[in-house]
Write the structure tokens for this entry.
Amino acid sequence: MRRVFSLVAVPLLAGMILAAPAAAADLLYPGGTMLSEPATGKPVWMIQAQCAGFFGATSNVMDERGDSEGAEAAKAQGVTFFRDSVDRLMRDRGLSRAAAVEAVSQALDTGRAEGFQKIKDGGGFGSRSHWNITRSICLDVADVYQGIRYR
């Protein structure tokens, strides 16, 4: 079963991670679980920004479906990813907050578009859906980041 999820996660996450090269100062994702393996070596701030967009899309769809509790939880998770992403980019590259927010917003838009697509075309919110796999990947990234955030 793990091998199946790993093989499914590669194209799912690959579509979500922008191909932009990392700057020399960027903290790179060291890896976490088999699910988040495709993100290994990518800039942490970029993954966080895309996860922020993904959770924003999740919040919007849940709100449209009348799940206000789920929408609020997804929104809170997205805000956490957004703040961590901006802070990480400022720390890595020495950018102003405004410049970091602008850069993060571009990656966030990519994550939002991918999130809507995964919900609508990938089985909704089910336990084996594309949305749930991506959600798990983002949560793996958040867990790993707790241990490396002050580097």
